[in-house]
Amino acid sequence: MKNIVVITGSPRKNGNSEKMANAFIRGAGRKGHKLTTISAAELDIQGCHACEGCYKTGNPCVYADDFNHIAPVLLEADVIVFATPLYWFTFPEQIKAVIDRFYALLRGEFLFKGTKECMLLVCGADKKEAFAGIVKTYEIMADYLEWNDRGHVIAENASEKGDVDKTGILEEIQRLGEEI
């Protein structure tokens, strides 16, 4: 049994990213994995302030926002899944703030580097080329963190709420959840 954390990045409730996350969760749940969902848009998390104060107060970050509440969950995860829309060719601000704060976890005494599997699920835009920036960012991040990159799934032409239902990709994502 793996401890899986799914981080969603969209501020839109019941949108395409959430449907993709739920498909993955259904698949992984069938295998009995422990699942936790973190909705980045519902949290108060600022990006990294580059203050180098990581763990100086006993928390991963000296800034007292919601990141310190989710940090233990991230550190305990065997798998971290990003389910996010594409915003201007990259991660939306909400999920990017969480990712930026991974820096604090790297500076801690707990292993964060080299301990995770990772998968990126993205949706939006009408051409796969539009996803090149977010995919490259994800690949570099996974490589730097020495995570076992499980790849990514792209649902294009899924801008309006519910469009992802028409793509047939939810079944693929559910299978990925079962195989993780």
TrEMBL record:
Q: What Gene3D superfamilies would the database entry show? A: 3.40.50.360
Task: Give the matching InterPro entries.
Answer: Flavoprotein-like_sf, FMN_Rdtase-like_dom, ISF_SsuE-like
Report the Pfam families cross-referenced here: FMN_red
All copies of domain NADPH-dependent FMN reductase-like, residue ranges: 3-115
Q: Name one GO molecular function term.
A: oxidoreductase activity
Q: Which segments does the entry list as coiled coil?
A: none
Keyword tags: Flavoprotein, FMN
Protein name in UniProt: Flavodoxin family protein
